[in-house]
């Protein structure tokens, strides 16, 4: 059973990240801005998991990070560069490094130059 879950904003973010992982990790989509009660409902099945977030570097992502910090202060917040703004447009090689640094198991093909 996995011990961590990754929370992203949308389906395109999930599709950008999923091929990088060599472990079976649930990737949960908030589908944009979400209320505290909806977030709790979404994450209740994952109470025993370590929570990781990877949100866009924009207003919506900042709001989600703030909500997560308030409701789940134990969550780990991974970030893309503001240069890329959105997770879905961040190069996979960069995302691979971010995820590897957080101890996710990554397909080594993303580290070949």
What does this structure look like?
By secondary structure, the chain is α/β, with parallel strands linked by helices. The chain has a single domain (4-104), classed as Dna Topoisomerase Vi A Subunit, Chain: A, domain 2, CATH 3.40.1360. Helix content is 34%, strand content 16%. The protein contains 4 helices and 4 strands, in the order βαβαβαβα. Strands 2-1-3-4 form a 4-stranded parallel beta sheet. The chain is globular. The model has no long low-confidence stretch (mean pLDDT 94). GO terms for molecular function: ribonuclease M5 activity.
CATH names the topology as: Dna Topoisomerase Vi A Subunit, Chain: A, domain 2
SSE pattern, N- to C-terminal: EHEHEHEH
Number of helices: 4
Overall CATH class? Alpha Beta
Please bin the fraction of helical residues. 25-40%
Question: Quaternary state, please?
Answer: single chain
Low-confidence stretches: none
Which CATH architecture? 3-Layer(aba) Sandwich
- Count of structural domains: 1
Structural class by SSE content: alpha/beta
In percent terms, what proportion of residues is strand?
A: 15-25%
How far apart the termini lie comes to 33 Å
Mean pLDDT: 94
GO molecular function, one term: ribonuclease M5 activity
GO biological process, one term: rRNA processing
